[in-house]
Amino acid sequence: MSAISAPHTPASQELRPRDITIAVTVYSRREYVLGAIRSALEQSVPVKVIVVEDCGPDATLRDFVLREFGSRIEYFRNARNRGLFDNWNACLEYCRTPWVSILHDDDVLHPVFVETMLALAKAAPGRSVYFGRTGVLSGGVVTPAAPAVGWPQNWRDLDPAVLADESLMYFAGQLIRVEAARSVGGFKTPCFFTGDWDMWFRLALRFGAAQTATEVSLAREHGGEDRGSNRVERKGWNCALDNVQRKRNRAFLLREKGVAMPFDRLKLLQLSTITAGALLRNADHYSDRILRYNAWIFTHHKAPRLHYAALQWLVRLFGPRVLRLPSSLRLQCLI
Question: Could you tell me which residues come within 8 angstroms of residue 152 by beta carbon, excluding any fewer than 6 positions away?
Fold first, then answer.
């Protein structure tokens, strides 16, 4: 379908550092949180930094953080545990500036994040979401974001029709206008996996979103069960929840713009990728229904490697239940 243009909010004034708050969310991961806060404080252009704790189990966490940073930050603790997505709403509530960047306690911002957002807002005024590109930090090894391809300039507007099918915005490294986020109802607390994507899509559709080609952050990968995305992958829900969000985006698009966007299963099959390694590690944790769902996606996807194709053949021949065996047979080492 053709690009859908989002109305841009007239920029009454240039975005300034004093308009921005970085809100670091935390629950219990004290092994990472100091690094996240430090990255927020060590911006080349300083801004306000707050910490929002979601009533975690560590009664000494506040003292631990304030001992390190003192008055350089402001610390808030929710009166009750609000959950991941509603804690993002708490960030909107505690923020006293027009713009906020939400930073997870296990991610880090590059020192140029704020200055890059200021430059992007100047080049593309009137949007309500600005964001950059994100590298990956895993086991102490940094994998930079892949080079941008085919952009006529150092930034681009996001087409909501593209964003409806694929979440192109990741934590960390986003900047959102607080008033706009509140106007669309905040983050949806019932979401289990795609609450961020849901917000980015609604904001981009109503108010516009722009992305810079500059890498501004690192997202940390780790295997802890306290990481919600790890729990979702372990249960095999990733693709199913992504496709539910794609249908939700289409309903919102139809309601807001009167544009009907077909649910193209062949196209979405390419987006709903599931790795052989993930199947072999986690299939014994899947329900029968999720096992069948993921096996169907897996067997209908174009095989990137010979081992992938061989496993597809085994699943077609013996059925999805064959995927439950490799944990004991250690076949995942072959993929």
Answer: none
- Contacting residues for 67 by C-beta, under 8 A, at least 6 apart: none
H or E element that contains 200: helix 195-207
56 assigned to some structural domain = yes
Range of the domain at 311: 273-335
Segment 33-90, tens digit of pLDDT: 999 999 999 999 999 999 999 999 999 999 999 999 999 999 999 999 999 999 999 9
* CA distances from residue 228 to 33, 36, 195 in whole angstroms, order as listed: 17, 18, 12
Beta strands in the chain (DSSP E): 20-26, 48-53, 74-77, 99-104, 108-109, 129-138, 141-143, 155-157, 174-177, 209-221
Q: Which is it for the CA torsion 18, 37, 26, 74, positive or negative? A: negative
Q: Do 127 and 178 fall into the same domain?
A: yes
What pTM, to 2 d.p., does this model score?
0.89
Gap between the Cα atoms of 315 and 295, Å rounded? 7
Tell me, yes or no, whether 211 and 283 share the same domain.
no
Pairing state between β 108-109 and 209-221: antiparallel
